[in-house]
Amino acid sequence: MDDCNLKYQDKLILRGLQFYGFHGVHPEEKEQGQKFLVDIDAWLDLRIAGETDDIINTVSYTDIYRIAKEIMEGPSQNLLESVAHLMANTTLLKYPQIHAVRVKVGKPDLLLHGPIDYLGVEILRSRFNNEK
Asked: Rounded CA gap, 1 and 129, in Å?
């Protein structure tokens, strides 16, 4: 789904969030942990917030950040898919004014046979499309 298919084009943007967590399927990932990179987009109507200049008419970036931090630094999950899904669903449940959430979670410190920035997943969850 492209941004243009969403009901609202306005969004909150959180980029380059860094956390240390213990997610992964390998024992060393669960024991030693590793750094994770997270990007989040949250679509909602920001017109009233723009007109009133009042935080009550939007969702605070820090509230979304706290959800990401709690999940990334919380109980271990095997899959990044699970981590991203938890972040998106928690955000949608906690903030009904948010219509869709995109979460990207990356692992930058993998030992592979070549240079990489990161490997990861990106998911999009929306209230109006019932995507699974």
From this structure: 10
**Is pTM beyond 0.85 here?**
yes
Ramachandran region, residue 39 (left: φ > 0; alpha: ψ -120 to 50; beta: rest): beta
Q: What is the pLDDT of residue 131?
A: 45
Domain boundaries 3-126, corresponding CATH code: 3.30.1130.10
Instruction: Judge whether 107 counts as a catalytic residue.
Output: yes
Give me the catalytic one of 30, 35, 107, 132: 107
Residue 5: exposed, middle, or buried by beta-carbon count in 10 A (0-12, 13-18, 19+)? Answer: exposed
- Domain ranges within the chain, ordered by starting residue: 3-126
Q: Of 42, 35, 97, which Cα lies nearest the Cα of 65? A: 42
